[in-house]
Amino acid sequence: MTLARPASRRPVYFDCDTGIDDSLALAYLLASPEIDLVGVGTVSGNIDATQAARNTLDLLQLAGRGDVPVAVGAHDFLARRFTGGVPWIHGHNGVGDVTLPTAPRDPEAQDAADLLRALAHQHEGELSIVTVGPTTNIATALAREPGLPGLIRSVTTMGGAALVPGNISPVAEANIGNDPEAAVMLLDAAWNCTLVPLDVTLENQLFERDRQALLEAPSALVRALGAMLDVYFDYYVPLYGERSCALHDPMAAAIAVGGVEAVRAPAVEIVIDATDGPGRGQTICDLRGQRLGPVDRPGARHRIVLELASPLGPHLVERLLAFDGPEAAR
Amino acid sequence: MTLARPASRRPVYFDCDTGIDDSLALAYLLASPEIDLVGVGTVSGNIDATQAARNTLDLLQLAGRGDVPVAVGAHDFLARRFTGGVPWIHGHNGVGDVTLPTAPRDPEAQDAADLLRALAHQHEGELSIVTVGPTTNIATALAREPGLPGLIRSVTTMGGAALVPGNISPVAEANIGNDPEAAVMLLDAAWNCTLVPLDVTLENQLFERDRQALLEAPSALVRALGAMLDVYFDYYVPLYGERSCALHDPMAAAIAVGGVEAVRAPAVEIVIDATDGPGRGQTICDLRGQRLGPVDRPGARHRIVLELASPLGPHLVERLLAFDGPEAAR
Fold first, then answer.
1. pTM of the predicted model, to two decimals?
2. For residue B90, which of A173, A319, B229, B310 sits 20 to 30 Å off, Cα-Cα?
3. Helices in A249-311 by DSSP H: which ranges?
4. In the prediction, which pLDDT does A177 show?
5. DSSP at B138
6. ipTM value for the complex
7. Quick one: average pLDDT of A232-243?
8. Distance between CA atoms of A177 and A22, rounded to whole angstroms?
9. Which of A231, A225, A200, A244 has its CA nearest to residue A31?
10. For residue A35, what are the β-bridge partners?
């Protein structure tokens, strides 16, 4: 299923709800020599899981990576139904209403949770998980295979809002807020997660000049990203006062790859509000006692990224523009 | 019960859990020519309500204001019992273990909620409420007299944490967190509250040079404040990295009096988390859409103070030092 690759390329499983910034993250992973994308699972969020898989297959095809397995994951969340995506942010098809060439293949027969399990065994102790949607598939994989954490190298999750407002409620960010029960399972599992919240993703942007550069890229995939960002940029005008976008999902990818460095990412207790109260979906991070500088709390297993050493935008654009055009030859 | 005063002095009812910073707030109110302190109710919080009343009587006596009625209020909160104060912050007696001369009088026979109700009728449409402890007494007064808001001019409450960590949980501030059910009643009532949260109170400090100045003040009350701040300053060393203190309670007093100006205090939806979940006691403020500047949300009745035009500390010290010494002559 996978091509030969240098032993130094770390295998990555990517779980997404593709999505415009999911597409950016996917392209970043494909463009990163440090890792090898060995599988993608989809989940409902920005769009339903089935459409997210179609988008992912088509994007991979544009990059000449029809070899990467894509599995459809959870349509509904653990405790609640998926009630529809966010077409006013990501377009009606999830990729900014850009029509991508339809890839001549279908998703895997197994679901995303089972694809993750299979890859975890195949790459025992080596696999990194990057999630940029609700963590429903990860929770399902944990439920089916409680020993999963012992097989995994690292988990990086885009999600949460620590000291900034949420985006689906005053305190809840969409990925965690859409499936808090799954997030509880993610954080309860015996691995150390790196959480990449709105606190830092909203502070890193792409601008119109970046989008124009992507539209001229050698890669057909990257040019498609430039096209789909048009819709996404419109959404952010009220927030930033200009056409641009936050870099949510690509930041989780870049942190997992090691392409950017977090300078403030303390290990703190993180509790998910999974009540039915007004705080449902909040990632309650215990950031008391951090005023004088980041402090790792004894016993805390999960890190929350609050600040990068340098902005993600220029690094992301540089890597996407360097991505080779004749990908079909790979 | 009250002395003759210029008509321009607005009557203020002060509800407190005295407390070192409550003492600062009390002295500030006494030192403010804009208002007349017409009554004080106490509640458990920093210390139990009975001791808080004793402290308040003794502080008033030091200022020669044995005329201000003091009523003991709720010992326990609406849904939970008071489990003891915070002697490691405010000392064992609530006033930094400073021994105050015992005032030769006792609290009123009526409780704090009934004192508030009586004052509200006496000063119909004119009375301002300033709360710097749990809002249990206010909730009790509202339960006894649902028409109370129609009698009141303004409500200013020290409490909450919007975009900063809490101080009794990762998200809950002590005043709201100790009695969330009372805070729900406060915010549901038909008045517009001004909430003064940790976001702004932690950004305003007193320093050792200020304390030394207070120790030399003409007023015996203010010199006592300087003495009790010794204990309080110790508590803040791990937070600020130096001996100093936050200005929680005096800020609510100063905002109610008009002594300081809030430059960022948007009217937003505020919901109290009164669940038994991990967010219990949180003041969930909908601060989405405020990145480009403060925006009043349509229909929102309550303001949350996030930034002052100038620091409170210098204004507070100036007013306390100008407070006349021979107060007993008043």
1. 0.94
2. B310
3. 249-257
4. 98
5. H
6. 0.92
7. 98
8. 17
9. A225
10. A10
Query: Which of A82, A64, A84, A66 minimizes the C-alpha distance to A74?
Result: A82
Query: Which chain A residue has its CA at the smallest distance from B275's CA?
Result: A277
Q: Is the pLDDT of residue A4 over 70?
A: no
Find out whether B5 and B29 touch, Cβ atoms under 8 Å. no
How would residue B5 be classed by pLDDT, with cut points 50, 70 and 90?
A: low
Are the beta carbons of B273 and A269 separated by less than 8 Å?
no
CATH superfamily of B10-322: Ribonucleoside hydrolase-like (3.90.245.10)
What is chain A's length? 330
Cα distance between residue B226 and residue A93, in whole Å: 65
The count of other CB atoms within 10 Å of the CB of residue A6 is 7
10 Å CB burial of residue B238 (0-12, 13-18, 19+) is exposed
Say whether residue A23 is in contact with chain B using an 8 A CB cutoff.
Answer: no
Q: Which amino acid, A91?
A: G
Compute the count of residue pairs across chains A and B with CB atoms less than 8 Å apart.
84
The reply to whether residue B241 touches residue A163, judged by beta carbons under 8 angstroms, is no
Task: Please answer whether residues B30 and B56 qualify as being in contact, where contact means their C-beta atoms are separated by less than 8 angstroms.
Answer: no
Q: How many CB atoms lie within 10 A of CB B297?
A: 15
pLDDT score recorded for residue B4? 52
Closest Cα of chain B to A236: distance in Å? 11
Could you tell me how far CA A267 lies from the centroid of its own chain? 20
Q: Does A240 touch chain B (CB under 8 A)?
A: yes
**Dist. CA B162–CA A160, nearest whole Å:** 16
- Which residue bears the tokens 């690094």? A315
Pairing between strand B283-285 and B270-272? antiparallel
Domain ranges of chain B: 10-322
Exposed / middle / buried, residue A216 (Cβ in 10 Å: 0-12, 13-18, 19+):
exposed
- Length of chain B equals 330
Pair of tokens at residue B168: 């009794």
Q: How far apart are CA A274 and CA A176, in angstroms?
A: 10
Among A4-13, A157-166, A240-249, B257-266, whose mean pLDDT is lowest?
A: A4-13
Distance CA B48, CA B170 (A): 24
